[in-house]
Amino acid sequence: MNFLDYDATELACNESFQRYCREECETDMIFWSDWIARHPVKAAVVAEARQLVEILSARQGGRAEQLKHLKDGLAQYDLLQEALMEPVPVMTARQRLPVWKYAAIVGGVLVLAAGTFFFSRYGHGTMSGQPGATIIASGEEPRKSVVLPDGSSLILRKNSRVELAPGFNLQNRELTLTGEAFFDVYQNAKLPFTVHTALLDIKVLGTVFNVSAYVGHPATEAALFRGKVEITCVQQPQQKIVLQPNQKLTILTAPTDQPSTKAPLLKVVPLDADPVDHKAREIAWVRNRLEIENEPLSEIAGKLEQWYGIRIAFADEAVKQYRYSGTFESETILKALDALQLSYPFNFKMVNDTIIISK
């Protein structure tokens, strides 16, 4: 079978590829991991196919019907494509792939709408001498999800905090991190996104990465998963390091009780993959794999609340009864809600630190 001739939709319909995406069969995982490595020219097709499988996996109803729904949806998509002169964009908290196309694929023509996330200030104060800075802290919560004014999202780990610079999303997109956070940054070339830590300055345009910078720890790490970042060591500003996906920069310093005059040691290494699930260990703390079988949205929301550290409320009782089946993995609550929303439409917005779900 020559998979090089497959487009994204044909690949997503292949049951072996679906098992690979859902990590259900080790044989399929080995085959596709090797095939993808040997055919980098198909990277874009594979990425699109994986997203189709993710959407399919969150489909409403039982698993047995999911493949049939996808194939039927493909035929409906062809008809829809002929009828539409231009796609109608679906706006969520950030621009993503053409969602209207996938909405048609997963079950016919759906009218999708998403509320806009509005940022609320979690607290005011000063850090680093900046009056009026906005401080967001996780405290003792294992994880705290935050949507920033620019549409970027981040998850703070326990005992971590960020300080948004005055004028964030107006004159700049700069923040200071103490602790650990996972970032999914909305792209805006006019306002580069910059994360400052005690030892590193990390400049990005649009990317997904994790930064660990706890005070008193001997190592600070920046791990990149998608996109590109430029990192400058505060103590060696003349040296700039550009990370590629699946790389991390580690900077080692002397313990705080053993001051040293030596320059910190910088090292770029591959991400640390778990030998069992082949996922990067650097973000094991933030990744959430949901196994759901014909569960109502009210129960799924409870699981999301517990994992991502953010309250979810319902404006309509009927929405609670929407039922879903499947297995999907998501790094942020936005992506989890997007996957569910695509397969059965609802609206969501953020009001006073709470996600409100409605029809």
Word description of this protein:
The chain is α+β, with helices and mostly antiparallel strands. The chain contains 9 helices and 19 strands. Strands 1, 2, 3, 4, 5, 6, 7, 8, 9, 10, 11, 12, 13 and 14 form a 14-stranded mixed beta sheet that branches. A 3-stranded mixed beta sheet has the order 16-19-18. Strands 15-17 form a two-stranded antiparallel ribbon. The protein is globular. The protein starts with 7 loop residues before the first helix and ends with a strand. The model is unreliable at 59-64 and 76-129 (pLDDT under 50).
What portion of residues belong to β-strands? 25-35%
| Largest sheet entry | 14 strands, mixed
Helix-strand sequence: HHHHHHEEEEEEEEEEEEEEEHEHEHEE
Shape: globular
User: How many strands appear in the DSSP assignment?
Assistant: 19
Structural class estimated from helices and strands? alpha+beta
Rounded Rg: 22 Å
Oligomer: single chain
Q: Mean of residue pLDDT?
A: 75
